[in-house]
Design a protein that fits this description.
The structure holds 3 protein chains of 3 kinds.
Chain A lengths: L1 H28 L4 H13 L6 H27 L7 H18 L4 H30 L3 H23 L21 H6 L8 H18 L1 H11 L1 H6 L4 H27 L10 H12 L4 H25 L4 H27 L4 H7 L15 H11 L1
Helix pairs in contact in A: 1-2, 1-14, 2-3, 2-13, 3-8, 3-11, 3-12, 3-13, 4-5, 4-6, 4-11, 4-12, 5-6, 5-11, 8-9, 8-11, 8-13, 9-11, 12-13, 13-14
Chain B lengths: L2 H7 E12 L2 E12 L3 E5 L6 H8 L7 E6 L2 E3 L4 H6 L2 E4 L11 H6 L6 E2 L2 E2 L1 H14 L15 H14 L4 E5 L7 H16 L3 E6 L2 H7 L2 E6 L2 E7 L5 H9 L17 E11 L5 E11 L3 E5 L6 H9 L6 E6 L2 E2 L5 H7 L1 E4 L3 H5 L6 H4 L11 E2 L2 E2 L1 H14 L17 H14 L4 E5 L7 H16 L3 E5 L3 H7 L2 E6 L2 E7 L5 H8 L9
Parallel strand pairs in B: 3-10, 3-11, 6-9, 9-10, 15-22, 15-23, 18-21, 21-22
Antiparallel strand pairs in B: 1-2, 1-4, 4-5, 7-8, 11-12, 13-14, 13-16, 16-17, 19-20, 23-24
Chain C lengths: L1 H33 L7 H19 L5 H29 L4 H24 L4 E2 L18 H5 L5 H19 L1 H11 L1 H6 L4 H28 L1 E2 L6 H11 L4 H20 L4 H4 L3 H20 L18
Helix pairs in contact in C: 1-6, 1-9, 1-10, 1-11, 2-3, 2-4, 2-9, 2-10, 3-4, 3-9, 6-7, 7-9, 10-11, 10-13, 11-13
Classes of the chains: A mainly alpha, B alpha/beta, C mainly alpha.
Chain lengths: 387, 515, 319
């Protein structure tokens, strides 16, 4: 297994590299200097050699926090064979629940934090269970159902916030969320020079550890992965496939809901309507780049955080449009999706033995290989090899 | 020398064909010559290379070495279209038919009729197909949809596909797997008819009986090489079998005398729906006792799937009862049934038997991972899982590159099956259900698995065997239940019956025997 | 009853304008999926079309009559999206990548790249065009009672173009050899392969068709109701996907599904203005199309007519 882990890492690094190259080419195409561009990009994101550098670093961590959650959400669902395109909607609904709690109750901050976490997680979980249930009971493809749920959540937020939580200034904003209701902590912020960083980060890291534990060490993880790899064999062996699908979407939804809590109760100061959170779709990118592993998602989210925080600084210093960060990320995804296959094709033409090839095949990235109903071709190679 | 005459007489010559796949030489310097107007059998066990060779002839693969001559001329067959143009057609073992197209649409695919303002002239094509069907007595309805016609007719559609393209050289790839003994005789009649009209046929098979009945000559392959080409008339089954396997095989499977115990499985008046919203299993009743193997014989699609899925819990039961050790399990979950003492070897080992992307050790606890010692309070004990895997690997001779850590995907078919058999038998079940347990395996693996199944029986367990290979059923079962159209036709003692009787029963003609 | 008819008559032009881009994008998706390639990237391809059209018009509108510029823009949009779809085709068909992921990547790249380029041109990420197409009434036909007001007033040439494409496309799909082979590739590619059909080539063509049609859809959005490019197409690409499933992968089916979405969305948007509808809470009207889609998915789940081999990579020589 170790070898395939190494391969995953190489693929992700390669994809990142190619994405950065694509970005450099774009910079050249508009007449800018890529070296300047990237220097400022990373400087803006990490804050080295800058007077307010630590603030930038804090902002990067804050920006990365919801991405860690959504990345975990998508990665977790993917490991169990499900595409969670609905992280955005789960984030919205979970965020809405968290904001509602935050604006309605006033308890000491530790209590509020627990309530908010619970509300966000629950909201997201509910939003995830619905597509999960539809898939389990009716085999409705989760890609379309989660996209529908995204828009339903969008409009629910659009009407609920002005109706119940309207802010004093704008039609499109909620009331300001008191710091003590959410994850914001002055001391932590001050540690990072007044940045946006908040407690959400610690919850995110805790989630990474928890999810990794679940996936690798527990009975639940064993079942979920088995269902993800081959639901027929899992069913045949007595595993309750429907229950696992629903459970998986519930957990994935809960994670995305926490992203909402972290974003609106931690990073931002209010909840805006009319915005479909990009962190939802970025979560797909994070999961892919992180090879659908918890640790990978953490690292990928941090990398994206750097890009997002740095792009504004880069734009100010070099006038390179900030969208280049999004383009780089999108290109990385394309390469992450295809590079494993390129790798496979290269190996195949090198004519290594089929067994070695199989060992190196990275199952997590591609859909489980279509089962060859005609076993002749498998056995022709295998049956004789044996003796 | 009569070289000139011999060359003209051969309609296809495959000379010194070699084909490699990564890590294996599937065809090794094979020479095969097909005379005009003959039925030439290509014999070899699973994995010998016969399908690869024919795929080369049909243009699906390219040979690494060697040449092909058609009617004396050297040709390069780089895709099925060229094969078609040369008059070569293939009836595949797994039909290549689009389920929701009509027969006509399937046949014309790739060679569609001319277009007019109104679109392709499918009516004209339908007419031509009906004419062909009548000419060769194939009895096919051009406007029916594939999903609505029988398997036998589907096969005849495949034959028509070739005839529509004026094929002169017809390749049949294991055509009899899906047919009853009587349908096989009909197919042989059709083949002889085709040959009379001037066609030449290559028949790929591993069934000796069919070769004797149908073929003029036979080329035997073993491990990618030609062992020899013989005249069928002057060669015995035993000789051909020995050529195929390389040693004397014992056709008789030695069985110990039976020691019957109590009734383990009792199925009464079972009614189960099929996927087509009608009853797939009707009023089915049967018992299996400890110490016996009950074989279920029947043509594929006559209710065996519904029966198996009802017993294992994959499919709902409309009415009737399933008693395991006296307790009705028809409403129990799959897991509860496994805990109650049922183990099953599935028909499709890659789809239902294994999680190919899991390690071997994780696969071997697929039914018991949640119990001690493999897990405690929801947390897995990987060390115990590993110990268990090593035990099964050793006991059941499962060969895998990295032992218990190998990915299940990397094992050969035979070893995958042995792993599954090992896992299921290790559960020490009261009832072992085996569905097509030796499908697609080489003779060595087949013998091994038969041995282990017989061991189960001898140690006082009950075995329910479902197989489409009549030889297997006749060989190891004690009693045989024959199923046709979802109904029990009758139950016979294996030692008192023969292929013909069972074959008739599989067609629905049979005696009602008391159980 | 009369009030209902007059409501329908007055909102029809808007509903149809909303329907048309949905319809053509869904139809493109139909070709792709019927050939066996799932295309989640319809949204991104529409964005590319919208951008290409806006860019072309922006550059040309000062040099030539507006209408000519608009039509050239539409042509460029079709071409650009068809080319861009090659990315998805290459990944899904030649590299056997996961088609859902590849499609998502297309969406992301399209979204980011177009705004990036737009920002370079106008400095703001939006491209505005002076004007698009103007609606017109069809002479004679507009006077037919009821139907005349619904279908033949305030129409656009692009709408008729799309209906024409729908008709021709359906004919091609069901009545020509190409269509037969394409459908075979989506149901049982091994059968097509054994019959001598080049599965890879047909799938490439089908994906490019989906690109071209989506590009047309994006351009139509620009020139019929939005008037400016701003980086997204309001989720219409995803809605087109839902329409495809709702319409069970059949041309008539998606016509019905997209009309439904068109009318439902328009009703939601204008509900304030129409007294009988103003009483329904806005949120209900807005989420109505999505909820109905979910329900439809459930209902159709048992008898789904999805192409059997859709989404599965085709490996040559697999018997």
């Amino acid at each position: 297994m170790k070898k395939s882990r190494l391969n995953l890492l190489i693929v992700s690094l390669l994809a990142t590299f190619f994405g950065l190259v694509a970005g450099a080419l774009l910079m050249l195409a508009i007449g800018s200097n890529p070296i300047d561009g990237y220097w400022n990009l990373f400087q803006g994101g990490l804050g080295f050699l800058l007077p307010n550098g630590i603030t930038r670093l804090g902002d990067t961590l804050a920006k990365a926090t919801p991405l860690i959650f959504t990345g975990l959400s998508v990665a977790f669902a993917f490991r169990t064979g499900l595409f969670n395109i609905g992280a955005a909607g789960q984030m919205l609904f979970g965020g809405l629940c968290a904001v509602a709690v935050g604006l309605t109750f006033t308890f000491p901050q530790p209590v509020m934090i627990l309530l908010v976490v619970f509300a966000g997680c629950l909201g997201g979980a509910i939003w995830g269970i619905i597509p999960g249930f539809l898939k389990a009971k009716f085999n409705v493809h989760e890609v379309v159902s989660t996209i529908m749920m995204n828009w339903i959540a969008y409009w629910i937020v659009y009407y609920t916030i002005p109706a119940f939580f309207k802010g004093p200034f704008l039609e499109t904003e909620s009331k300001l969320i008191p710091d003590a209701a959410g994850f914001k902590m002055q001391s932590l912020s001050n540690l990072f020079g007044g940045s946006e960083i908040n407690l959400g980060l610690f919850f995110a890291i805790a989630s990474v550890i928890l999810i990794a534990f679940i996936l690798n060490k527990t009975v639940l993880g064993y079942e979920l992965k088995a269902v993800g790899f081959n639901r027929h064999a899992a069913e045949y062996a007595g595993i309750n496939v429907n229950r696992n699908i629903i459970l998986s979407m519930m957990i994935a939804g809960g994670l995305a809901g926490l992203a909402g809590a972290a974003q609106y109760m931690g990073n931002a100061t209010s909840m805006q309507i009319g915005v479909m959170p990009t962190q939802g779709f970025d979560g797909i990118a994070v999961a892919l780049l992180g090879a659908n592993t918890p640790l990978g998602a953490l690292l990928a989210a941090l990398f994206f955080g750097i890009l997002y925080t740095g792009k504004g600084y880069m734009n100010a210093k070099t006038s390179i449009p900030p969208e280049i960060a999004d383009t780089i990320i999108a290109t990385i995804i394309y390469f992450a999706a295809t590079s494993i296959l390129i790798q496979r094709v290269i190996e195949w033409t090198k004519k290594k033995g089929p067994r070695k090839l199989e060992r190196q095949r990275i199952a997590e990235e591609s859909k489980p290989i279509v089962v060859n109903e005609d076993e002749k071709s498998e056995d022709e190679k295998g049956g004789v090899e044996d003796e | 020398m009569n070289l000139g005459v011999i060359v003209l007489d051969n309609v296809v010559e495959m000379l010194n064909i070699t084909k490699d796949f990564p890590g294996i030489r599937a065809n090794d310097d094979i020479t095969l010559q097909l005379r005009k107007g003959e039925i030439h059998a290509l014999l070899g066990e699973n994995g010998a290379g016969k399908s690869t060779l024919m795929s080369v002839l049909f243009g699906l693969y390219q040979p690494d070495k060697g040449r092909i001559l058609v009617n004396g001329k050297a040709v390069h067959i780089s895709n099925p279209n060229i094969a078609n143009d040369l008059g070569i057609g293939m009836v595949h073992q797994h039909f290549k038919l689009v389920h929701n197209f009509t027969v006509t649409e399937n046949i014309v695919l790739g060679k569609e009729p001319k277009m007019s303002i109104l679109g392709m002239d499918l009516k004209l094509a339908s007419q031509k197909i009906k004419e062909l069907s009548d000419k060769y007595n194939l009895n096919v309805e051009p406007d029916s949809r594939i999903q609505n016609i029988s398997v036998g007719m589907q096969q005849r559609v495949e034959i028509l596909k070739m005839l529509y393209r004026d094929a002169e050289i017809l390749i049949f790839d294991e055509p009899t797997a899906v047919l009853t003994p009587q349908e096989i005789l009909e197919l042989i009649k059709i083949m002889k008819n085709l040959v009379k009209e001037g066609k030449s046929i290559i028949l790929i098979t591993h069934k000796l009986r069919e070769i004797i009945a149908a073929a003029d000559r036979c080329t035997v392959l073993r491990r990618g090489k030609v062992v020899g080409t013989v005249d069928v008339l002057g060669t015995s089954q035993e000789t051909m079998a020995e050529m195929m396997v390389g040693r004397m095989i014992d056709f008789e499977i030695a069985k110990k005398p039976q020691v019957l115990g109590k009734t383990i499985l009792e199925i009464a008046n079972l009614n189960v729906m099929s996927n087509k919203k009608v009853l797939g299993l009707k009023d089915f009743s049967v018992t299996v006792r400890a110490g016996e193997i009950l074989g279920v014989a029947g043509v594929d699609g006559n209710g065996q799937t519904e029966l198996m899925e009802a017993i294992t819990g994959m499919r709902k039961v409309e009415s009737g009862s399933i008693l395991l050790n006296g307790k009705d399990i028809k409403s129990s979950s799959i897991r509860k049934r496994i805990e109650a003492g049922i183990a099953h070897i599935p028909e499709d080992r890659q789809k239902r038997g294994l999680v190919l992307d899991y390690s071997l050790e994780n696969n071997l606890v697929l039914e018991v991972y949640y119990k001690k010692p493999f897990s405690k309070r929801g947390i897995l004990n990987q060390k115990e899982i590993n110990n268990h895997a090593n035990k099964v690997i050793k006991q059941f001779d499962v060969r895998a590159g990295e032992g218990a850590f190998s990915l299940a995907r990397s094992l050969s078919g035979g070893n995958q099956q042995k792993a599954i058999v090992g896992r299921e038998i290790d559960l020490n079940p009261d009832l072992l259900i085996a569905v097509q347990p030796t499908r697609g395996l080489d003779v060595g693996s087949i013998e091994y698995i038969h041995k282990r199944i017989l061991e189960q029986r001898d140690s006082g367990k009950a075995v329910l065997l479902v197989s489409l290979e009549l030889d297997e059923i006749l060989g190891i079962s004690d009693r045989i239940a024959v199923i046709n159209n979802g109904e029990l036709v009758g139950i016979v003692d294996a030692k008192d019956t023969d292929e013909n009787e069972v074959g008739l029963m599989m067609m629905g003609i049979g005696k009602e025997e008391a159980k | 009853m009369n009030e209902a008819i007059s409501v329908i008559e007055s909102i029809s032009p808007y509903a149809i304008v909303f329907t048309i881009p949905l319809l053509i994008a869904a139809f493109g998706g139909l070709f792709s999926e019927r050939s066996g390639v799932v295309n989640i990237g319809l949204e991104g391809l529409m964005v590319i079309g919208s951008f290409a059209c806006a860019f072309t018009i922006y550059k040309l509108q000062d040099f030539m009559p507006q209408q000519e510029a608009v039509w050239i823009g539409i042509g460029v949009a079709v071409l650009a999206s068809a080319l861009f779809s090659l990315l998805h085709a290459f990944a899904s068909i030649s590299l056997n990548a996961n088609q859902v992921i590849s499609g998502t990547a297309i969406n992301m790249i399209a979204g980011a790249l177009t705004v990036f380029l737009a920002r370079n041109i106008t400095g703001s990420g939006n491209i505005q065009i002076k004007s698009g197409l103007t609606g017109f009434d069809v002479p004679f036909l507009k006077d037919i009672p009821i139907l005349g007001k619904i279908l033949f007033t305030d129409t656009y040439w692009t709408s008729w173009l799309v209906f024409l494409i729908l008709g021709v496309g359906a004919f091609v799909l069901y009545k020509t050899p190409f269509g037969l082979r394409l459908r075979a590739c989506g149901e049982h590619p091994q059968a097509a392969d054994a019959a001598g059909v080049n599965v890879f080539r047909i799938r490439y063509i089908a994906v490019m068709i989906s690109g071209a049609f989506s590009g047309l859809g994006g351009a139509v959005i620009l020139v019929t109701f939005s008037g400016e490019f701003n980086g997204n197409v309001f989720g219409l690409g995803f809605l087109a996907l839902a329409a495809l499933i709702f319409g069970q992968w059949k041309p008539l089916g998606i016509l019905g599904a997209t009309l439904f979405f068109g009318f439902a969305s328009t009703i939601a948007n204008v509900s304030q203005v129409i007294p009988s509808l103003a009483q329904i809470p806005g949120v209900i009207l807005k989420i109505f199309p999505y909820v109905v889609t979910l329900i439809a998915l459930v209902i159709f789940s048992k008898s789904s007519q999805a192409p059997r081999a859709s989404g599965e990579p085709f490996e040559h020589g697999k018997r």
